[in-house]
Amino acid sequence: MTVDSDTESVYLEVTNTSGDNLNYTVYGLADGLSTEVDSGTISSADENDTARQEFVANTEEYDEYRVVVTENASDSDTESADNIEVGTTINQAGGGGAFFAGVGGGGLLTVTNGIIAFAVFGVTYVIGLWDPVKERLAEE
Questions:
Q1: How many other CB atoms sit within 10 Å of the CB of residue 13?
Q2: 3-state helix vs strand vs coil in the chain, percent to 5
Q3: pTM recorded for the entire structure
Q4: Which of 14, 63, 117, 138 would you call most buried, defined as having the most Cβ atoms within 10 angstroms of its Cβ?
Q5: How many CB atoms lie within 10 A of CB 109?
Q6: Distance (Å, rounded) from C-alpha 66 to C-alpha 5?
C-alpha cells in the first residue's frame, strides 16, 4: 500500500484465526527495493475476535509498505483466518473552533454541538423544566 506524509501507521487485522499464531512480515519499499521493517506473530483465536497490530509509517524513508501473512511452517497443523485486512491510518488535523479550540478536536462551538444543545433545550422546555424561569420572568 502506498503511504504519504498524511499516513500515520500501517495496520494488520486478523479475525477468527484457527490453530496457532499466524506469522507476519512487514516490508518498507523505496526506489524498487524492499526492506524488512518488522515481523512477528498475530492471533485472534477467540470466536468473533479481531486482533490488530499497528506499525508506525516512516513516510520519509518508504513510499509503500507490504505486509505478508503466512502460517507457521514449523508445526504440523495449519493456520487460517476468516478475514485478513491490511490498511493505513492517517493523521487527522483538528480544526479550530471559534472558542475553546483545543476541546474535542473541533472546538466546543461546532455545528453538531449547537444542534445537540438546541435539542436538549427543546426537550427540557417541553417537559417543563423551564417553567420556574418563565414564571420568574413574568413576575418582573
A1: 17
A2: 20, 40, 40
A3: 0.61
A4: 14
A5: 14
A6: 17
Would you give the DSSP letter of residue 2? B
Question: Taking 90 as the threshold, does the pLDDT of residue 116 lie above it?
Answer: no
- Edge-to-edge, what's the strand order for the sheet holding 80-90? 50-56, 7-18, 80-90
C-alpha 26/C-alpha 12 separation (Å) is 9
Tell me whether residue 17 is exposed, middle or buried, using C-beta atoms within 10 angstroms of its C-beta: 0 to 12, 13 to 18, 19 or more: buried
Boundaries of every domain in the chain: 7-90
What is the tens place of the pLDDT at every residue in 52-98? 999 999 999 999 999 999 887 776 777 778 888 898 988 876 554 44
